[in-house]
Amino acid sequence: MALLRIRKFPDEVLKRPAHPVENVNGALNSLIDSMVQTMYAAPGVGLAAPQVGESKRVIVLDTDHDEPGKHLLKLINPKIVEAEGKIIWEEGCLSVIDYSAEVERAAKVLVRAWTPEEKEVEIEADDLLAVALQHEIDHLEGKLFIDRISRIKRELYRRKLKKLIKEGKADERPSTVRI
Ligand code: NI
Question: How far apart are the CA of 23 and the centre of ligand 1, in A?
Answer without folding.
Answer: 25
